[in-house]
Design a protein that fits this description.
With about 400 residues, this protein is mainly alpha-helical. It has 4 domains: about 140 residues, no CATH class; about 70 residues, no CATH class; about 50 residues, no CATH class; about 80 residues, no CATH class. The chain is about 45% helix and about 10% strand. It contains 15 helices and 10 strands. The radius of gyration is 26 Å and the shape is globular. Belongs to the Rv1128c/1148c/1588c/1702c/1945/3466 family. Pfam families: DUF222 (PF02720), HNH (PF01844). InterPro entries: DUF222, HNH, HNH_nuc. This is DUF222 domain-containing protein.
Length: about 400
């Protein structure tokens, strides 16, 4: 690893402006090959980590959750890496081509469904030699464009069971919401034909109801507005399931002075997810919302409920949602609605049901802190986590210490 880091340092020192076009192209080809080989090693190491239950060392259940927390990967990217690592075990020819740099991580992910246990079983049932398929796909991936490889894989999977029962359409439904630093979201997903039709009809109904003369929005903007309106309607109806004893809602915390002041107040309000917005945007949200007064103590902490209640009252739970923004266990990205309110000092041992003595923890990590792990909130508001052996769990560790 030290040699790899040293090689990367040397590459970073190259004088790129001094290179001509052909030289840059050749350098890029070599870098892409090296990138593929590194990706293959990541997948191989990841699979070994799964088999060794390496995630448990850091208090997590799966390598997929470890990748999200410690590797800062999106849920979709983490799932794709895990599936690739598993598939390469069953496809040695593809694994060898990947390790040699002839395949990209994206190509390996496209091939991965071939090694899904269900597809391997179907291949065995109809007498398909998966070794031959493996070898053929390695050649196609090395010689053909990405789209062609995708078509070949889909064609193979379709022909595995052409006369079988109609597959469950819901199995192919996927949706990911990627939150960016400014709080905006990028939506990616796949829906089956029926599910996609339902969503389109619902969005189109809102789009058509909102049509008016002079509407200069693009079609994409109209559909984006319709999706948000669909969520507004569902939240306002009051018919959505409860989230950890709390009615689903959009929470915003704003000082009283900023609520009354007409100034824009950039960065003055905090939403339930931790995203910071302007006071003007918060006042806009408050126009048709319930405003709850929260009195803060001299140290800036909300006034607590003492020991009169063991169960966390709704107002305190809302404060925790705003303050913690989800599970506070290091490396976990579970949202607030997956979390319990945990007493840092147990109530039975004298701990108060107050924000100072409470932390949001998902079910898994709530169990972990009752079996040796420990979370602690520092004076600066940051949460830290310790293993049972007393070592601290840290995320985002560099390849090697900075010089």
């Amino acid at each position: 690893m030290d040699e790899l880091a040293a090689a990367l340092d040397a590459l970073a020192g190259d004088d790129l402006p001094a290179l001509l076009g052909p030289q840059l192209n050749q350098r890029l080809r070599l870098l892409l090959t090296a990138q593929n080989r590194l990706a293959a090693e990541v997948a191989r190491t990841l699979r070994q980590g799964e088999q060794a239950s390496a995630a448990e060392h850091d208090g997590l259940k799966t390598m997929q959750s470890w990748l999200r927390g410690h590797g800062h990967l999106s849920a979709a990217e983490a799932a794709r890496l895990v599936a690739t690592g598993r598939a390469l075990e069953q496809l040695p020819a593809v694994a060898a081509a990947f390790a040699a740099g002839a395949l990209t991580a994206g190509q390996a992910a496209v091939i991965a469904p071939v090694a899904d246990p269900g597809n391997l079983a179907r291949a065995a049932d109809v007498g398909v030699d998966v070794a031959e398929v493996d070898a053929a796909l390695a050649v196609v991936a090395a010689r053909q464009p990405y789209q062609k490889l995708s078509e070949v894989v889909c064609g193979y999977l379709d022909r595995l069971d052409p006369d079988g029962p109609e597959p469950d359409p819901t199995e192919g439904r996927r949706l990911t919401l990627v939150r960016h630093a400014d709080g905006s979201r990028t939506i990616r997903g796949d829906l089956d034909a029926a599910g996609g039709e339902k969503l389109e009809v619902a969005l189109e109904a809102i789009v058509q109801a909102g049509r008016c003369a002079g509407d200069a929005r693009t079609r994409a903007q109209q559909l984006g507005d319709a999706l948000v309106q669909l969520a507004d309607n569902a939240l306002a109806s009051g018919g959505l399931p409860m989230l950890r004893t709390v009615k689903p809602h959009v929470a915003v915390m704003l000082d009283l002075d900023d609520l009354a002041d007409p100034a824009p107040g950039h960065g003055a309000a905090t939403m339930g997810s931790g995203v910071v917005i302007s006071a003007a945007r918060a006042r806009w949200l408050a126009c048709d919302s319930t405003v709850t007064r929260v009195v803060m103590g001299p140290d800036g902490q909300p006034i607590d409920h003492g020991r009169t209640k063991r169960l966390v009252p709704a107002p305190v739970r809302r404060l925790l949602d705003i303050r913690d923004g989800g599970c506070v266990f290091t490396g976990c990205d579970a949202p607030t609605w997956w979390c319990d309110a945990h007493h840092l000092l147990e109530w039975i041992n004298g701990g108060e049901t107050s924000p100072d003595n409470l932390a949001l923890l998902c079910e898994r990590h709530h169990t972990k802190v009752h079996h040796g792990f420990r979370v602690e909130r520092r004076p600066d508001g940051r949460w830290r986590t310790w293993r049972p052996d007393g070592t601290e769990i840290r995320i985002g560790a560099a390849l090697r210490p900075a010089a």
